[in-house]
Amino acid sequence: MLTILGKPLIVPLLVFGVAAAYFISLSSTVPTFFNVNSDAPLFITAAKYFRLSHPSPGSPLYNLINMAWLHTLPFSSDYFSLTVLNALCSSAVAAVLYMITRSLFAPLIWLAAGVVVSQSIILEQYCLTVLFMVVSYWCYKSDKRSWAYALASFGIMINHLAGFCILAYLINDVYRKNSLKPFLWSFIALPLLAYLPLFNRPPYHLIEGESLLDYYDYLFGGHKGLIGGLSIIPTDDLVQRMWEFSRVILGGLGTALILIALGIKKVWKDSFVLPLLFIFPAVYYFTDLDAMTYTYTTVSVAFGAILACQYKWKFAKGVCIAGAIALIALNVQWFDFGRTLDHEQTQTKWYEALDKLPDDAVLQVDRAGCCAILWVDLYNMETGRNINNIKKAIVDTPPSGRGIFVDMVRKAESEGRLYESVITDTDNYTVETFKIKSDELVQFIQHPYAPRKPMNEDMIISSLGSTK
Amino acid sequence: MTKIISIPLIALGAILWIVLSYISQPLIIGEEVFHRWNQGTSTSYLVGVFTFKLLFTLVVIGAIGGFFASKFKHNNAIRTLIHLSSTIMVMLYIYAIYTIYD
Predict the structure, then answer these.
(1) What residues of A are in contact with residue B28 (Cβ under 8 Å)?
(2) pTM
(3) ipTM of the complex
(4) Domain residue limits, chain B
(5) Chain-centre distance of CA A61, in angstroms?
(6) How many Cα atoms sit within 13 Å of A441 on the Cβ side?
(7) B-chain residues within 8 Å CB-CB of A327?
């Protein structure tokens, strides 16, 4: 019989198979705006055209894995191929959770949490990050601390969230007076950062050039307002975040939170690691400026699942298992791409509308969702066209130098090639593209940081059709 | 007695779990948060962000400074040095944040 660490492998393989069938059947086969799928265009661009992606910190290992996958096992579309890889990573997390706890309870919690499902069925990096983190924790728990630090280090090369492992291990090791030699393995993955200068070339993505200052801005500039940046004066955002936090955590873990609290109480005396790995990502999300970072709580769900298995209470566990199974059934109804979610494939239809634009069109997309700018860049690379997207250049140019953009949009308007894509229905992510007059856009160029108002219908010359 | 009370409470919790999952679905598919990205640009918002970071930093630096100061209970010179350096770090942080948002 197949074994791993002396334990039978048949159940973990079954867990992996069932989870893979569950996630892949729900997965999005075409690009989508749903599930805050904002990084997908970056990851496709990086994997297909060998460029940089998200600066957290550049995801070199994730991009290299995606490149290898896309160029050796291509099937269907690039998007779906990479989404399947993500779904398989999430399934592997479920299997590892079983192997750590030897209980089906942990993988059930993972499969039932809405935030986990939403991030397992699109193209994202969190599932692979969590996979590295749980395997790293498994090593730490098995007293293979060098391996634990090294795996967490490689995890950071996928997403910086894996850094919480190193932080938790370090706090625990310092407090318990363990040897800190294994900590040196935390630096083993640093050479992977050579990816950044090697793959940084025009057309640049999320970086302005190749100077040291450009790299500094790429790695730290974009995040300076995010971490711990929740606005608490006025208190509206704080109250809103508390409500959202409650829904994500209580809706994701439910009654398992009781077992998690009891689990924390039980393990705290022996090790801080598990409780800290549950708490850190949740606090990080709670205090982050960006409301979309609720996706970080996938890490809390994974370690919460392990914690919940630490406390033996048959009745509570039985209720949790029943609740998780009911939720898995409901998730199939709530998160099925193409059937109950994004059945109008609004992103694909928006791309079709872009086909109608002239090659030298000037297109404004800042009211089409935060990732629209990246989708336009990918569209240009895929089609060899050069639709001019000016938003980023405006923000990066000081006010005194923005006159050239005013001249550009005035000229584009007079030649009938000035367009804007706008979300017109937030429930379905319907995006419409309009030929527009320049007045409102000129105001935006002069004050790019002012909150945008809904589109003024007087600015519309004609519509290219909605994504419906 | 505790068991009699806790059993229906947990069962009720499981129902609440499903209800909350249902309520959280629009948030999780991004409908509620996808369009809020640009809101973080008004002046009042930046003031709020600054305030949080300042409070957060005070707590973190205070905790670290307090921890080290507690290790030197009988050495007033070192304790004063730690308190002084913590204060300087907070001031430097305020200046750094100020230059970022200026």
Answers:
(1) 35, 114-115, 118, 248, 251, 294
(2) 0.89
(3) 0.84
(4) 1-35, 38-102
(5) 15
(6) 31
(7) 17-18, 21
